[in-house]
Design goal:
The structure is a homodimer of 198-residue chains. Chain A is built from ten helices and six strands. Chain A is an alpha/beta fold. The first copy, chain A, binds a DNA duplex (30 and 30 nucleotides) through helix 9.
Chain lengths: 198, 198
DNA sequence: CATTGAGGGTGACATTTGTCATTAATACTG
DNA sequence: CAGTATTAATGACAAATGTCACCCTCAATG
């Protein structure tokens, strides 16, 4: 079984490569980011794509989205550090085969590969529940403003970056704060981030 | 060689266990946090401690600090995700044997274990340089206030938590902002965090 | 003993944020 | 076309934040 592994953290990538390589039927190709994975996927076909979400260049979700655009139904398993409902929902919409946390034991990963290869779906149970939870209430602008506020930019700077007036930004942030039940912009950003909405 | 591995992310812990276990001379014991490592270290002796910094309960640095308090000179290697100068300085002060980034290839880790076991010191070169950089200008109170501000707490809440008056908190944060050349508290927290001072 | 210097606190003031009501311009829809 | 969301902007006001100068207490140090 030809497996393409995309993971940016070198030590984990190496270690997973080695670990999965111990399975006699697996043949592993490992790359350090989404763009390299994309390049390989153009050239050659694989049986399973195993990818992290957070990667420089092209995220794991964007990579799968691209595959789907190419009408490529390649079975994919997403592994991620963060338990964020937003990610899971987006992944499910892309029809991924599996979604695991890096907090899961590694034999669960091996098991997931076999099962997804047989056409089953494997979603970490902690995540499955969350995915059904509350929807992201933020609008696109609110999200972008919040993201910048989170970096410590002032209202004026955010306004400049988003090409909007200062007052409008204040309105957006105020909306976001109230929607999320937060105490101020930073608090709001923290909450949104925690739920995968940022 | 008996190696104790402390790392909270299960998948990485499993994978590293397996990978290091392939070396015939290594015998690996893996635990998921600093407190469990501490418990084991009380009972039994090891040749090398391999520990992450960011862990629930007791951080890797605190763990080594505790060893030193116990007059235990156990050779230790710190592995961490983040390239933060403050961490390196503190680690060096604790006389650790090695300091590596999770971004390093895994064979470098194996190599480091052998070298540290022989009494050498292995510090990732990206880090060694940084460690000589600028010193943390923050006082302890400023740091604590900044940490809470970073979570989105208001001045009043921070004052309550630290048992200080609101005005004093404002003074501290104002000091921190000016020392770090930041635009506001959030910006200051970001800067401090980035340099490992938080 | 006088001096210095932390550590913590006040008060006053300017600026930035957060809230809300209202309005204008555009696009969508029956 | 009238009706109605959507998106952006204003203005006004309250609250939180940032800045600064100055005060008090208590060790430490000469």
């Amino acid at each position: 079984m030809n497996i393409l592994l995309a993971e940016d953290q070198t030590m984990l990538r190496d270690a997973l490569s080695t670990l999965l390589g111990l399975e006699p039927s697996f043949s592993i190709t490992a790359v350090s980011d989404g763009l390299k994975a994309q390049a390989l996927l153009r050239e050659k076909s694989f049986d399973i794509l195993l990818t992290d979400i957070e990667m420089p260049g092209l995220s794991g979700l964007d990579l799968v989205a691209w595959l789907r655009e190419q009408q490529n139904p390649l079975a994919s398993i997403i592994i991620t550090t963060f338990n964020r409902a937003g990610f899971v929902r987006r992944a499910l919409a892309l029809d991924v085969g599996g979604f695991l946390l890096k907090d899961a034991p590694s034999d669960q990963l091996v098991d997931a590969i076999y099962r997804v290869h047989r056409g089953e779906r494997v979603i970490a149970s902690e995540l499955a529940l969350q995915a059904l939870g509350d929807q992201d209430p933020l609008t696109d602008k609110e999200r972008r403003a919040l993201r910048l506020a989170h970096e410590g930019l002032s209202t004026a700077h955010i306004a400049q970056k988003l090409c909007l007036s200062e007052g409008t930004i204040r309105n957006y942030l105020s909306e976001a704060i109230s929607k999320l039940g937060a105490g101020n912009r930073v608090d709001a950003a923290r909450i949104a981030r925690h739920r995968g909405w940022l």
